[in-house]
Design a protein that fits this description.
This protein is of the alpha/beta class. It folds into 2 domains: about 160 residues, Rossmann fold (3-Layer(aba) Sandwich); about 80 residues, no CATH class. About 35% of the residues lie in helices and about 25% in strands. The strands form 2 sheets. The protein has a 6-stranded mixed β-sheet, with helices on both faces. Strands 1, 2, 3, 5 and 6 form a 5-stranded antiparallel β-sheet that branches. Keywords: ATP-binding, Nucleotide-binding, Transport. One of its GO terms (cellular component) is plasma membrane. Pfam families: ABC_tran, BCA_ABC_TP_C. This is Amino acid/amide ABC transporter ATP-binding protein 1, HAAT family.
Length: about 250
């Protein structure tokens, strides 16, 4: 059974259709990538899926529940989490404190009382924070100030904050954005490993990463799905080669 499906998802701004009739089918514990050039509608699609923007028409089912009219907080409570293209951390706080805030929920007043010695607060967040620290490899940097981390490590921490919400589905918006070549394998390996426990829906411009770690790829163009398939199918699709790979193919 699919964990996320959309039926003719459409988002319009007046006469302009940013996303038109998009039908997604995301399977549990897979890495599903969404690619396409700037203006293809990828970020608008993510905004609609997470409730940041309201659909113009269509339906969204998450974990077999209709969520088309739910707000971001409710979708998060159902098990949907997201990281953004622009890093958004509490830079003067430690890695652990950032994860604690995420675990409690930034919209909740309790999320800003992480310093409390309350046993109930500690119990509520400890398991989620420990899971995020272990998964991202930050166990030995838990007390490091986030602002002292490298850019690549900050991107990893942002993924960790999404994980601290203990989601069933995590949506990652260009997690390698702005990262140096040496840091990219670190986060691509993390993203691939996440599917052991959860489902990943990924926007990424780095085609090499997408082809290497994805189970399924959806290619968008002008707000619509151009083609969809496995990495090998996408790499060898004539339309995709012409639009995104320069018309050349590589050995499988």
């Amino acid at each position: 059974m699919s964990i996320l499906t959309t039926n003719r998802l459409t988002k319009s701004y007046g006469e302009f259709k940013a996303v038109t009739d998009v039908n997604l089918d995301v399977q549990p514990n897979t890495l599903h990538a969404v690619i396409g050039p700037n203006g293809a509608g990828k970020t608008t699609l993510f905004h609609c899926l997470t409730g940041v923007q309201r659909l113009t028409s269509g339906r969204i089912l998450f974990d077999n529940k209709e969520i088309s009219k739910l707000g971001p907080e409710k979708r998060s409570s159902l098990g949907m989490s997201r990281s953004f293209q622009v890093t958004s951390l509490f830079l003067e706080m430690t890695v652990r404190e950032n994860l604690q805030i995420a675990a409690l929920g930034v919209s909740s007043i309790d999320g800003f009382r992480f310093w409390s010695s309350s046993a109930s607060t500690v119990k509520k967040t400890a398991a989620a924070v420990d899971y995020a620290l272990e998964t991202t490899g930050f166990e030995n940097r838990a007390e490091t100030i986030a602002g002292d981390l490298s850019h690549g490590q900050q991107r990893m921490l942002e993924v960790g904050m999404a994980l601290a919400q203990q989601p069933k589905l995590i949506l990652l918006d260009e997690p390698t954005s702005g990262m140096g070549v040496d840091d990219i394998p670190m986060i691509s390996d993390l993203v691939r490993r996440l599917t052991k426990d959860i489902t990943v829906l990924l926007i990424e411009h780095n085609m090499g990463i997408v082809l290497e770690i994805s189970d399924k790829i959806t290619v968008m163009q002008l707000g619509q799905i151009l083609v969809e398939g496995t990495p090998n199918q996408i790499k060898n699709d004539q339309r995709v080669r012409e639009a995104y790979l320069g018309g050349e193919t590589e050995d499988a």
